[in-house]
Amino acid sequence: MKLSASLLICLVTVVFVLSAHSQAPSNAISDSDFWKMIRDYSEADGQFPYENFVSNEVNYQTVIPKLVEDVKPGGVYIGVGPDQNFAYALALKPSVAFIIDIRRQNLQELLMYKALFDLSPERPDFVARLFARRRPAGLNRDSTTEALFAAFGKVPVDPAFASETLNAILANLKRHGFQPQSGDEAGIRKVYLAFVEGGPVLAWGSGWTPTYADLMTKTDGAGKNRGYLATEENYRAVQELERANRIVPLVGDFAGTKAIRAVGQFARDQHQIVSVFYLSNVEQYLFASGSWPAFYANVATLPLDSSSVFIRAVYQEKDCAAPIHRMILGSDFLTVLQPMMDVTRRHRANQLTNYCDTVGDVP
Fold first, then answer.
1. d(CA 48, CA 66)
2. At what angle do helices 104-119 and 184-198 cross, to 10 degrees?
3. Using CA atoms, how far apart are residues 129 and 113, in angstroms rounded to an integer?
4. What are the tens digits of pLDDT across the range 16-60?
5. C-alpha–C-alpha distance, residues 226 and 138, integer Å
6. Are 136 and 151 within 8 A, CB to CB?
7. Contact present, 80 and 278 (Cβ < 8 Å)
């Protein structure tokens, strides 16, 4: 009987610990509010010429040291695209990170990531599930990103594991209240299978573009990897943001009438500012379509202060009067910062007439 009692005590302790670990943090957004924001703030699915499963901006970490120095934690973050946003959210510690993309497929991808963070206790488990490759022996919480991807690069795809993981992703989301729209389950399946088939060398496009493994092993230019798989501590920090529903994917057009303005109203209701807006190179497409005035009008509605900053991925423009020439070897993009209030001021003064106007004075 003493042994049974001891076992009972152990079991109760384990259940208590697991229960405590699975509880959302005190600053969490409820599941119902999370899905309501996605539903209420999002716009209709739009078109984009590329499928950005992974980023092609190999230098995106280089601005993080400056961001950490200048931007106070706790503001509202807005971004675009897939998982490079996790590194920015990790560094900036926003109250909420909204990721707005014109493609519903990007929302589906971010929901896939959300489930994988919840399902995967450690980084090796996360990588294993993401690419449907069984976790190799010898990896642990202290393994470097280089060691992670060297090990997984030798492991073949496990189709049964892929099927198991896809089912687990959908079940996890539904358990938290996900009510898929038509096409959502097929969209998540498409995104997940792209990762399974591409593996750690999945890249943005043809020619040289960084692979997922390249992006995860890059540094901030000063030798520090600030990515979400760099350390177990980094991974757990993003995992907690996801479990707290503080990374909110939205469908929205930057020149649309709803998503950006809804996030701005959320920030005002919370008495917060939009501290960072990661644009990638979306402005190129806005100027090409002639919709850029609507975008800058949207930005002008956001609660900002002098520290609010745009993160841009600037593509070398041959037609610019002052070409951006400080390209870093291995990428056509240079990641730069620019005060948001300066840009809105220049827009009001009719000083922005083409894409080059937005980047010509970038230091």
1. 31
2. 70
3. 10
4. 334 334 444 558 999 999 999 999 999 999 888 778 899 989 889
5. 24
6. yes
7. yes
